[in-house]
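[09:14] KT: can someone run the structure on this one? pasting the chain below
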Amino acid sequence: MLLACQFAMNAAPVNNAVVTRALSALEHDQRFTGEQIAELNRLLQELDERYFDLQDQADDDAEKQIEALHCFGQARAVSALLFSQDPDPVVASMEAVYEASTTTDNSVDLFDAAIQQLSGQ
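[09:31] RB: done, structure tokens below
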């Protein structure tokens, strides 16, 4: 899960103290606090709303389309963090990897690294 979240944050960086603390917690095998989860959910909602607003405004505006995709990637990166906290480790891993994979149009590296990690290599 850490691998997926780090991949997502590298692909779609979110400069936010809550995200930084959440990544640090993951790196130290710590669970997120209820407050962290609530703050990450709020951030996810803000990023998703921003994405939908930009997408509605984009039409043929390439800059708005790029900004919308950037917000989409950031939202998916935050979602990967949130899914990493699912109590079922299989669900947590699968969903975090899935969300991370949507932050880029080249997710092969992520899938290769995840397979290596799961196979213990």
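[09:33] KT: thanks! The mean pLDDT is 92.
[09:34] RB: yep, looked fine to me
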